């Protein structure tokens, strides 16, 4: 009997000392709900996240929402991750949600080096429309319009505030809201006719190569310095990393560059499935997986990198 106790004790000690596999996450973590707001950049990065979680044995789901609804969903625990918090342009929108620990913003941005402000075709800048202060002087040629994207987004709100406050003499202008795709159509139409047009511009985005555009100077007070220099962060429910630590590690690892996102977005804007686009891009750039999957396992605790490589046929 003493011998059996000794053996059992030795086995227990050995099991405690041996490296163990990561524990499987709760079943409630298997479905991962990502907010998608209809922007090509967020569609692209969310497509990558969904492709990876799929390969890891999770069940990713896309939830279409406006920007405010996306943050509301995160706050209420109805959305697990939103990869589209553009700072500083969304800071005023996010502030109420961060009060009383309503949501958590992961500390490392998923994108650095972005920009977000008003832009014009370069021929319009060469004609004198170079700054926010110049817009009012071109009111007739612009038909008193500034083109934004979908209602409720942060850029549109900033434009509306400028108009309501008669900032830069824009009190008589009108914001035209539609969608990212609708705005691009208006730019294309103006370029074909060689007419000036003022619109929300940002990078990364293929608009920077599809059109010869110039970002307007002088908008620091509204969009921030250096032509709206921005960082993009990921928002999650406050307790998400504690409940689903493996997914928390993956979301913290997901960091992109302007070049990577521009490549992904080019395909997304051609109406291709963002998850398929992401899979194809990863197959062509497999080395990135080591960074994104560092310390990440499958849902059931197995080697995450090996599982995703197998899932993608690498």
Automatic annotation (TrEMBL):
SUPFAM superfamilies: Periplasmic binding protein-like II. It comes from Serpens gallinarum. This is Choline ABC transporter substrate-binding protein. CDD domains: PBP2_ChoX. The keyword Signal applies. Keywords: Signal. The gene is choX. Residues 1-23 form the signal peptide. Residues 31-283 form the ABC-type glycine betaine transport system substrate-binding domain. Coiled coil: none annotated.
